[in-house]
Amino acid sequence: MSPKITTELLKQLRQVMKSPKYVQEPVQAYIVPSGDAHQSEYIAPCDCRRAFISGFDGSAGTAIVTEQHAAMWTDGRYFLQAAHQMDNNWTLMKLGLKDTPTQEDWLVSVLPEGSKVGVDPFIIPADQWKRMSKALRSAGHDLVPVKENLIDTIWTDRPQRPCKPLITLDLSYTGVTWRDKIVALRSKMAERKVPWFVVTALDEVAWLFNLRGSDVEYNPVFFAYAVIGMNTIRLFIDGDRMMDPAVREHLQLDSTLEPEFKIQVMPYGSILSELQAVGASLSPKEKVWISDKASYALTEAVPKAYRYLTPYTPICIAKAVKNASETEGMRRAHIKDAVALCELFNWLEKEVPKGTVTEIIAADKAEEFRSQQKDFVELSFATISSTGPNGAIIHYKPVPETNRTLSVNEIYLLDSGAQYRDGTTDVTRTMHFGTPSAYEKECFTYVLKGHIAVSAAIFPNGTKGHLLDSFARSALWDCGLDYLHGTGHGVGSFLNVHEGPCGISYKTFADEPLEAGMIVSDEPGYYEDGSFGIRIENVVLVIPAETKYNFKNRGSLTFEPLTLVPIQTKMIDVNLLTQKECNWVNDYHQKCREVIGAELERQGRHEALQWLIRETEPLIRVQ
Amino acid sequence: MSPKITTELLKQLRQVMKSPKYVQEPVQAYIVPSGDAHQSEYIAPCDCRRAFISGFDGSAGTAIVTEQHAAMWTDGRYFLQAAHQMDNNWTLMKLGLKDTPTQEDWLVSVLPEGSKVGVDPFIIPADQWKRMSKALRSAGHDLVPVKENLIDTIWTDRPQRPCKPLITLDLSYTGVTWRDKIVALRSKMAERKVPWFVVTALDEVAWLFNLRGSDVEYNPVFFAYAVIGMNTIRLFIDGDRMMDPAVREHLQLDSTLEPEFKIQVMPYGSILSELQAVGASLSPKEKVWISDKASYALTEAVPKAYRYLTPYTPICIAKAVKNASETEGMRRAHIKDAVALCELFNWLEKEVPKGTVTEIIAADKAEEFRSQQKDFVELSFATISSTGPNGAIIHYKPVPETNRTLSVNEIYLLDSGAQYRDGTTDVTRTMHFGTPSAYEKECFTYVLKGHIAVSAAIFPNGTKGHLLDSFARSALWDCGLDYLHGTGHGVGSFLNVHEGPCGISYKTFADEPLEAGMIVSDEPGYYEDGSFGIRIENVVLVIPAETKYNFKNRGSLTFEPLTLVPIQTKMIDVNLLTQKECNWVNDYHQKCREVIGAELERQGRHEALQWLIRETEPLIRVQ
């Protein structure tokens, strides 16, 4: 991976930062956030502005360019990748390390007095705007919205915004009709006495209308906004996809409906003016509910006194708690996914010793096996197929320049997943196709102990996920080891593989309490720069737990693994496990054998079945 | 404990809330916070306004009185106590429960439109003012400062503010002179380019000047403020205590000193006008550093543009990391404290079966044994001496109305501590003087497992205490049990028994990372309302941990117990412990036997020594 040469681009950007054609007054710094106008994590090529200007294309990062400096903030998952992809024009700011300045502090330290800092108001979330604006103002600078995106002005071959056909999901997948979702949303609005609600996140629009799209790779969403009133529904969406008869019928666009369920379809680009019109029409005490992470531009469209901002929308919270149809769909998706991975690992075991399998070939093969499964749509994220030192690059994606050949001498880490019509998967397994060293086994076993500690944890109703994060690290901490990423994230149901409002992380973000029906990942790891990476990830469902007692009738919760793929026992130092942990592994493998074994049998995949049976032999503790 | 009858008082308060003599405009609600003008947790009798108006005298709680309602917010430690102490005029608002409204939400729900909510600006912290003011304003109400404290106007026999003699601490106790502390503080001020610093917390004033007082029971502090400039030191303090020759010499008041170390002594009451004068004298870019928890009145004394607010002051952080002299002092204090408790428990074992020992007698006896120890000053908090159902009242203090007799049939919980000139102690032991039931032993053992999980935890440098809280709960959670308080708090060195900025709690407050030298408590519990209470508390020192590996050279930390008092093995169900936990108990008891045994020997306390040897017999796991 050679870095992108950005000298010329930065020169051009610094020119437009001073050009009266684009800015009212020159800006001394320009912020290029990661997201799109919907604050998506995964974005369409036309929105990859930060990657365009810097070369760094990880999923999280913010670039700031001043007249003399260019700096990139990203987190521990991407330290190595960003360092590889960016040239010497850029300074890497490692988030989470003690001495890394915040963007605001850094700006204040480098800017000349009375500077203007520009940003696209459609890209920056309102909460970030507020924080940054306040910090800059108190240091004598100004954060200013720059209407035209300055990256776009220098990006000559910028791709078009995608506008692909939609997929309609019937009740067997969603469990609830879009009409009932609107009814439930309006009841939440009535509870808070807020007559308007703006849907800005793409996965929230998709979930609300039981529609899916493919405008963004890996995330089955489409570019749209919605504004829901107590009696009106406005959907802002472009292209002729609303001409599709299936979509028209699904949304009942041509039926005679009660007016409060009649969807008005409007152009995507008209959201700002329509929202301004709603804002202007409000009577006192009427408010518009909008996420505090919505763009500054949309937030500003509603006068301040009429805004009702919350960190999580009622859709975000409702979407996180999967209903029975969604849970069953997720179970089916994970069974199919496990079948594909059993095939893959069986194949790898035979092929790797020949020295012909590269990281890219392995990733392609994983996709091939997944695509053979029913209702497969696409991958749910770029496959992390990494061997040896590449495994230590936490969100590595193999490209020809870095592509290593799998061997019997190195650890192989595969973090992959897919979108099926019935669910979304995300699973990481770490394998050795030869003989792992004692040290590799030791580290793997600590990671496994952490994985089990979370997966088997029992905790009271109302517990927030961040309270479980240390369970995943305890065994590593005991030996002075750790990993620089969170332990788990919410997973959508045939939706984004990363979703809020819950998660398991040491970062104290405003996570919502875990509830039965929520689905998160459990993925501790250990990474040794330049040597290897280990991660063990299951997707797990929050379920009620039976306990001996029931303090204050609060009830307890625990996790049920949805992912049912063997954890390589060859990598386990069984004598580092407690009997309880050993039993957990054996019970888990027993369930893999039963559930996935039956499906492999049904699909006539006998060789993979033999592999599964071999890989799920019970562990025996010698101690 | 019969509730205080508050009908007449509330009537009087509601009258003054409307009286032009005290308020410019009538206030429809009046807030009575817990603290004093220094936001102290423990307060002098003259500041116990919330207890006066409500009857509830726990250490934490906020009262709000409106024309029709009176409500009290307090946390899980005090639910039972508050319910017992308050009459029917009061509604108890249980903090931490899901359905409990915030003070702001409750006010908005009960107030007529456009109400004024009054509060004493010297008592409410600036951060609380800001949050509450904002919430009230957005609902059309106003938070207004009421200069005269309205409680004081109806409190006819309100005690005088205490003004007791000071204690000077020499270098052997403090490790650092006050001059060197001023130098270090000024270097922190220079780092942040802030030329003024206001010391508002009583323990910070005491720590900075190496002085102690006795104005507040249990906390060896005195009423004072300080304002430190780069070249000036102003100490605001009343009374003739500055006439004491020892104090004058300690502070070098009569020496010819470099001007920047010359202390100007000013009246306590002149802080507001002096601070206003400092604020008015500032040139642009000069700021005044003040805690964001300082009173609204003092914060407002400095114009907004000149305020530099932080959640923790540099004194708070420096004070938390004990130096070698302080650590050695704390060790000595804990050894003496353990001697007193060995005497007490030996005495209780003999006396309880006679049926003559009440909770109050036991508490008094504990104080008697402590007072026999060298450098004993006073208790560090009101002794929680509770048996049977009283043990479930988390911060219970025995009074004649509730005083139970200890017996061989009930669990006895003693949470007590003392101030010695060389250190502050805080220890809880839970004992049974007969035969505990299997259920009591089971619960005790879960609590012990939690205690050990924290005490033995190894974690990376930079870890915040809240990440360790779940370790203390895990064994309880597994059985559906829990406790409704945090796991640990910072402990001062011959200072407040509760101090910031670190702690171990599920509440995500802004705790500072743990550092070697910090001292916290480790005190999980389990409480069964109406039956019993269990808590096991040690004070522990953060120390560097030796680990097998050292990820990114971060270094690791762990805890060393300073408290060395046997944990009653009779209460332990040894078969619920792992071998590792069992070893921890045995190692701990071995250390108690060696260290405290030697001191008991030295003090000639042979009977207590025999008791100690008996109580520290090693556990043996049968499994």
Automatic annotation (TrEMBL), chains A, B:
Record flagged with keyword DNA repair: no
Entry keyword set: Acetylation, Aminopeptidase, Cytoplasm, Hydrolase, Manganese, Metal-binding, Metalloprotease, Protease
Localization annotation: Cytoplasm
Alphabetical GO biological process terms: proteolysis
Top EC category: hydrolase
EC number from the UniProt entry: 3.4.11.9
Family membership: Belongs to the peptidase M24B family.
Protein name (record): Xaa-Pro aminopeptidase 1
